[in-house]
Amino acid sequence: FATATAVDACGSAFTLTSNDVTTAGACAGQYSVTRTWTATDACGNTSTASQTINVQDVDAPVIAALPATTTINCPATPVFATATAVDACGSAFTLTSADVTTAGDCAGEYSVTRTWTATDACGNSSTSSQTINVQDVDAPVIAALPATTTINCPATPVFATATAVDACGSAFTLTSNDVTTNGACAGQYSVTRT
After folding, report:
1. Helices (H), the chain
2. pTM of the full predicted structure?
3. Residues 163-181, mean pLDDT to the nearest whole number
4. Given strand 110-120, what is the order of strands in its sheet?
5. What is residue 28's predicted lDDT score, i.e. its pLDDT?
6. To the nearest 10°, the Cα dihedral for 100, 106, 108, 113?
7. Nearest-10 Cα torsion for 23, 27, 29, 35
8. Which value, to the nearest 10 degrees, does the dihedral of the CA atoms of residues 164, 170, 171, 176 take?
9. Cα(47)–Cα(63) distance, rounded to whole angstroms?
C-alpha cells in the first residue's frame, strides 16, 4: 500500500492511522484488502481515505516432474508414478488422471499414456503426462513334443500335432516342415518334423 499523508488547514496537530479489512474471494488465492487511513486532528475532526488491492490467482498448480517415457516387455503391465503437485497461492486443488491406450502392431504391443490434471479452486489447471510402451519380444512357446521314436517298416511315421501359446496374447501361425534322411537301405530312413 501507499503511505498516506495529510495536511490540516488550521495547523492543528493530527494523527494518521490505518486499518486493513480483508475480504475472501472464491478460493484461497483470491481476496481483496482495503486499507483505510484516518486523519484525526487535535479538535476531534476526522477524514478518511481508502485504497483497495485485489489479489487474483491466475497460476495453476505445478505438477512435479513425472518419469520419462519407458519401455517394458509384455506380459508385464504398466505401473505409473503417482503425481504430486503444489499450489503457490495455497488454493485447494484436485489431482485426477486419465489413461489413453494406443494399439501397436500386435496384441502384445501397445502404449499407455497417463495424463494427470491438477485443478485449483480458482479454476486454474495444468497437465503432465507419462507414457509407457509395452513391447512383445517373446516368441510363442510350443508345447513339448514326443521324444525320438523308432518304428518298423512298412509302417509310416505319424507325428503328434504341435500346440503353442503366446504369453502376450498375440495371434500366431503354427507351421511344420519335414526333412527325410535316407538310411542304409530303401526301407530305412528318418523323418524330422520341425
Report:
1. none
2. 0.77
3. 95
4. 70-73, 125-135, 110-120, 93-103
5. 87
6. -20
7. 0
8. -40
9. 49
Which three cell numbers, joined as nine digits, stand for 38?
A: 484516518
Q: Is 141 helix (H, G, I), strand (E, B) or coil?
A: strand
Tens-place pLDDT, residues 39-98 = 999 999 999 999 999 999 999 999 999 999 999 999 999 999 999 999 999 889 999 999
Whether 119 and 94 have beta carbons less than 8 Å apart is answered as yes
Residue-wise pLDDT tens digits, 9-50: 998 899 999 999 999 998 988 999 999 999 999 999 999 999
How far is residue 31's CA from residue 50's CA, in Å, rounded to a whole number?
Answer: 16
- Between CA 15 and CA 37 the distance in angstroms is 10
| Burial status of residue 8 (CB atoms within 10 A of its CB: 0-12, 13-18, 19 or more) | middle
Q: Are 191 and 178 in contact (CB under 8 A)?
A: yes
Distances (CA, A) of 24 to 18, 90, 96, 110, 124: 20, 13, 27, 49, 18
SS3 94: strand
Q: What is the C-alpha separation between 145 and 42, in angstroms, rounded?
A: 112
60 touches 72 (CB < 8 A): no
Three cell numbers written together for 171: 495371434
